[in-house]
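User: Fold this; tokens only.

Assistant: Input:
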Amino acid sequence: MSVLSQPQFHDEAAAFAFVEAELWADGPVCPHCGGCERISAIKANPEKKIRNGLKFCGQCRRQFTVKVGTIFEDSHLPMTKWLQAIYLMTASKKGISAHQLHRTLEITYKTAWFLEHRIREAMASGDLSAFGQGGGIVEVDETYIGRVKGTPKRRAYHHKMKVLALVDRDTGQARTMVVQDVTAKTVMPIVKANVAKEALVMTDESKIYTKVGDHFAGHGTTNHSAGQYVDYEIPAIHTNTIEGYFSIFKRGMKGVYQHCGEQHLHRYLAEYEFRYNHRSNLGIEDGERATAALRGVVGKRLTYHRACAEA
């Protein structure tokens, strides 16, 4: 049976029940007072405009649904549409455009655009644990994409947006961030904050990483400009893993989304980072990946005014 044929994608009551089971595993919690006792369900009645999933808290005497305090708050979109959108975004390896989403879900483009940004907020992990713990291998590299608004086109990469990425080779996890420049002064503090001191760090020949070996257990480099992508004597020295990550990111950004403003780039990075960290190769399939994204919706509300103000 196809995942999308499951009831939560087509029945509103089932959709609310599914979300409640994931976000309230130990029972409903009032988002207004934090109480978990004396909470009762109010039966849905469309004729009297009583919403699906409506609850009443006997402690603070206020009503709420599971949507309060999440990316779903104040959304008039059916929960079934939300769950379909989350599934489509997490199951599409290179992403799904807002235009495609608006055609598939039969919603407006404006709604689809805002929907995707809110789901990207849910995908952001916020994990700050150090990579390479226990002496693991961490690959570090940077890439360039698009163009910074208002910057004239120049040679090399100076007019492009800059992205720094780290991949823990042992755990298969990636971490990405937007950086203003790619100098050692900017990059090295980020690397030191995100990589354990006992780690072995792999980079290319860039001068940015000249002093990496002073801060970590080891530093291996390959000379990409000379056509060397794997060390001839020690095959473990390479950055091919992170190059593979960048290839998926760039194919998606250029082929699916085509354009991204610098003010939104961090959300697109969160999207690709999430799918990579929950990929099939790690034993996480589409349904589980969508559920993992759903669990990240709490406390990440994004208003349309804020999203547009950044645009």
